[in-house]
Amino acid sequence: xxxxxxxxxxxxxxxxxxxxxxxxxxxxxxxxxxxxxxxxxxxxxxxxxxxxxxxxxxxxxxxxxxxxxxxxxxxxxxxxxxxxxxxxxxxxxxxxxxxxxxxxxxxxxxxxxxxxxxxxxxxxxxxxxxxxxxxxxxxxxxxxxxxxxxxxxxxxxxxxxxxxxxxxxxxxxxxxxxxxxxxxxxxxxxxxxxxxxxxxxxxxxxxxxxxxxxxxxxxxxxxxxxxxxxxxxxxxxxxxxxxxxxxxxxxxxxxxxxxxxxxxxxxxxxxxxxxxxxxxxxxxxxxxxxxxxxxxxxxxxxxxxxxxxxxxxxxxxxxxxxxxxxxxxxxxxxxxxxxxxxxxxxxxxxxxxxxxxxxxxxxxxxxxxxxxxxxxxxxxxxxxxxxxxxxxxxxxxxxxxxxxxxxxxxxxxxxxxxxxxxxxxxxxxxxxxxxxxxxxxxxxxxxxxxxxxxxxxxxxxxxxxxxxxxxxxxxxx
Amino acid sequence: xxxxxxxxxxxxxxxxxxxxxxxxxxxxxxxxxxxxxxxxxxxxxxxxxxxxxxxxxxxxxxxxxxxxxxxxxxxxxxxxxxxxxxxxxxxxxxxxxxxxxxxxxxxxxxxxxxxxxxxxxxxxxxxxxxxxxxxxxxxxxxxxxxxxxxxxxxxxxxxxxxxxxxxxxxxxxxxxxxxxxxxxxxxxxxxxxxxxxxxxxxxxxxxxxxxxxxxxxxxxxxxxxxxxxxxxxxxxxxxxxxxxxxxxxxxxxxxxxxxxxxxxxxxxxxxxxxxxxxxxxxxxxxxxxxxxxxxxxxxxxxxxxxxxxxxxxxxxxxxxxxxxxxxxxxxxxxxxxxxxxxxxxxxxxxxxxxxxxxxxxxxxxxxxxxxxxxxxxxxxxxxxxxxxxxxxxxxxxxxxxxxxxxxxxxxxxxxxxxxxxxxxxxxxxxxxxxxxxxxxxxxxxxxxxxxxxxxxxxxxxxxxxxxxxxxxxxxxx
Amino acid sequence: xxxxxxxxxxxxxxxxxxxxxxxxxxxxxxxxxxxxxxxxxxxxxxxxxxxxxxxxxxxxxxxxxxxxxxxxxxxxxxxxxxxxxxxxxxxxxxxxxxxxxxxxxxxxxxxxxxxxxxxxxxxxxxxxxxxxxxxxxxxxxxxxxxxxxxxxxxxxxxxxxxxxxxxxxxxxxxxxxxxxxxxxxxxxxxxxxxxxxxxxxxxxxxxxxxxxxxxxxxxxxxxxxxxxxxxxxxxxxxxxxxxxxxxxxxxxxxxxxxxxxxxxxxxxxxxxxxxxxxxxxxxxxxxxxxxxxxxxxxxxxxxxxxxxxxxxxxxxxxxxxxxxxxxxxxxxxxxxxxxxxxxxxxxxxxxxxxxxxxxxxxxxxxxxxxxxxxxxxxxxxxxxxxxxxxxxxxxxxxxxxxxxxxxxxxxxxxxxxxxxxxxxxxxxxxxxxxxxxxxxxxxxxxxxxxxxxxxxxxxxxxxxxxxxxxxxxxxxx
Lengths: 477, 477, 477
Hints:
With 477 residues, chain A is of the alpha/beta class.
């Protein structure tokens, strides 16, 4: 180990070749201090609404970060020992983990993160936000814990204060479609209504054969005061909630379907499937057809109300059935599958792809679709923007591959700019910073290869970091 | 914007690292002045046969270039405003666009092409061919229009004269299988019969459930004087036309099928499906089986007559149904899909893959198949050559990825060399030049990493630029 | 051609950029002299058991190396002329090729290997092992043949002596599940029982609709003295042989299935399918279900006996039916197909993925799965290690892409380290050397980009070259 204090090299994540690096540094400098536009993420709205202090280093940095938990689990740690809470005593695992023990496990596992983006994000946070000067390790864990805890305890470390410190101009949360948006109402009352925005996520209401579907419907009915007993009521309630979200500042919807199609059904067929689903008699084929139909309906409503439609298919959720049974869903065990966009989106894009009132942003966790399907689609349909590489792909080399794979067909203007897609709030500045560095490196290479002039690269870098994400989520013309 | 005049850097598209660049420059210099061998393209034969002047800058550079049109459309331009003509007044769009207006839209959209190959090709053309010294923009559009128009109006700018100026040794057109080849006959009469070659494209005759199939058959019957009422007559007429193409100098056939198989049917089954199709009673499954059967038959005929069989599956054509209805097919709305070669080609390659009379060139728009399927196939079957990266993949980074993905398994000798695949005639020298630069950069990296000696790289560069495309399309032994 | 003697540049296959190269050289130096751990390969056990001299240059270097044979075949050589022996006189090809003629064909074809890993491996072997100072060519073929033959004839060139010379600490062979392991018994008697290990490969016994299935069962019954007439006996015999392999030092099983699933069947269903298969009445669907079931059973047995389970699906074997008919299987005509892991492995990993007694190593020849499926799986399941890029992917650029695609999600510790997967014994040191160079180059780039510190890179390099392959194949906790 090095004896020198742990510092951050100013050129980290920029290209190694000196000539290209020099260009990259100049380009990066043009974006470094720009505000953060965070239009897709998973920070709980309550953190901002309630503005309470964070509890401890484990609770802040380890437990809510899937990337950390899954890497430590992959080398044998039980996720309950990393602070993930089981569903109940029946799950047969201890209910609570000592935060200092969780932190020690993380610090001892620090070498596991070599070569991962977590390494970059965490070292940025630890050094820049928490003033740490030693690498995490078993030996330094306790001292680091105390040091981080002291920063957390500072009243200036409350969520709302961090919005300023992190230069976050706007941030979106993700909210279930049946949300009463109370948190956002409270933020609006406190003057933060245009800075923290809700996002309408109706997945659970569109999967009519999923176990929780009925419960979701009940919540939807309650929050809207609408009878969802039939298909018309269901559509009406969805429309009501979209309007409520829009009034609360929402700029987008979010659709995480497994995405097998967007073919609309005749209304009477949709109504019949809906009725069957209400009776609990729907078949898998009917549920799939209905999901495709509803994605088309969501696009139609977006063309009406101007909410930007985010689509990200292609993940098999809760892969480890034992983890799902003991800890519930969304524990970092979602695994990508090969995804098809060209045929699946043809009905939706033929109907709305040139509609000036409509915009959709397509995300993927299957990078083979970047050059094959997504760039060709984004490069011809005016309604389509290509979302940032995210989830497993928001990493230095993956983000570079994204630009290399899509730019030659879709250019820059058809991409949406970076989204951080995270619930690890303190990592947000580091995530945007890393994306800016990688984009600077890519642009610098184009300049070094005389495929772009420097003035163009500088302007494009600001587009990618700031202007494009604002533009992608603003109301279509 | 830079105030200095717009010039082309001699090292553009070469690697940025100084040591590798220096090697790349030396390698590129060995190929720079070589003749252009353009064995696959879409320039209309009439341009050469009639040798008329081009009309205007929009008609020459914008309207026929899908890459330009689709990028401008992706940011909201209507394609009718870019000079694409609708099918008729019923389509509900204006029939004609003013060419100067089209040109202005293109110039104003110039920043959209940053990072795309269009940027490289167009700047090469504008600077080298048209002497332009300012970047296209709204402000410079009119001056550029006039300057380009003046060059176009020069009698030295006729298509045949450009063949010399562009150092085009040989160029292939693409012609429907029912063509009477009148254009090529006229070229032969004028001594250009070995310089401009037809290519036999029978797709429309092999898709027995496509709307235009019967019309195509009628044309085939007429041009051959053959009764195509039954399967035997159909095969005979195809054979007749292949012979006519061959006599007119054709070196290849071109098969753009969606490519789901190459399994031959028993003759009686094929005849029965053909008869059903003639009655308009064919099923989709029958049509698919027949298409696979006919691809096998085309290979068998190639083994007989020596025409090289080009295969390029994997595109969903006319994705935007509204565009197809208003403007017809082939408007730049074709989107790739995931493609399978290994199983699909097994029957064809088991039958002809080692036949010394047969050669096939495999293209793709799904780059995941480069290392997984195409390089392993080309690296073992003597009849297989791996076609150049094209369509969405004829771009700097994509061409580099192609070499990186296939060379380690298939080497260089099993690749076909660059094809430009374009109808944008004036872009042909720039397209070949870009490919030579990228190949030089790739070879230079191998030399810099001591994986190849410089003398080998120099010889290989000439192979890729000149010898291999000639060899790939010459008659098999 | 260069007149200077043929030598190996010390920096070959390291990055070209001088700064990164300097780092790479330092990192590579830390691994260069480490022992070779070769836990997956295809060198016949007889070579070590009998320790006989090799016959001639063709027999040693050309005939057993698929990469050489397939490249020469791809440019028109008949494989019988490359020394591959046909199945019998009925095959209609000459039975024997003169080794000097085979060698001449290889030397004349030397330029074909430009840009391939074969080029690197062979030049390393020829220069370092055989002292060759001229490039292979038609002109030098005979002299090289004599020079290589002289080295082969040296008694110090026996297989066991080469184990020392090549610094091979441990090497695994691949053995059919019905093997009596006589070769390994003999090696154990000679004190090499912990240095040359068997690997249990049961593929042929699990494919109940394959032609040779019954013959394999007979051999299994004979070697175990077990009645395999019913499913219980079959399972019992497999268990017996696993125990015998384990006792003989085996650390792993190897599963090359086409891999369509791992869903266990109820015992009675499995028994019924087994019985049907014994009667020769099994359907393709039953055989597929049974294969998935048995992969699950193999995992269950691995959890019991600690043998590490290697899985490598995704290849269509014996693609050229004519070659298979004349020369038999495994002639270099296996072609990859797109492969799915996420859904296929869910049953197996939900059952054993967190079982501390179980470990599986996943290989692929479909590199699209690296970032999409394999890294996410290896990055969360403690039982999963991600195998090295191999077969068509054990090449400089492909190995680099592997690290770039998987490290950001799975880190280094979830990968297995390099395996050479070869029957070309003399190439083993060169193969491991190339992998170490590529990993050094990748790590050097991370250091140059300040994404990793040099001390971490040095430690990681030793992990990848030596510690991880040992650890991946040791008995699970």
